[in-house]
Amino acid sequence: MSPKETSSGDKGGLAGQFTPARIAVIALAVLALIFIFENTRQVKIRLLIPEVSMPLYMALLAMFVIGALCGGYFFRRRNK
Questions:
Q1: Is 0.90 surpassed by the pTM of this model?
Q2: Are 41 and 55 in contact (CB under 8 A)?
Q3: Helix/strand number for the chain, H first, E second
Q4: What is the pLDDT of residues 23-78, one digit of tens each?
Q5: 51 forms bridges with which residues in the sheet?
Q6: Residue 15: how many other CB atoms lie within 10 Å
Q7: Where are the beta strands (DSSP E) in 1-80?
Q8: Element (H, E) at 3
């Protein structure tokens, strides 16, 4: 029998999926979302030439999503 087939010490189910690193990432993501939705005032944002006025939480949420997508892309590429 190979070591992969033995069940002793196997953390199957949810226990094996929640590592300390994943819990830390989830906690940071929740804190980031709380921070984003606490900042609701209007701000002027300039990206190169155009200047737009929008709620700060929309800009922060957009940057959060872009960062998450970039992070997911680079981690997925590194693991292959």
A1: no
A2: yes
A3: 3, 2
A4: 998 998 899 888 878 888 999 988 788 899 999 888 888 888 999 899 888 887 66
A5: 46
A6: 9
A7: 42-46, 51-55
A8: none
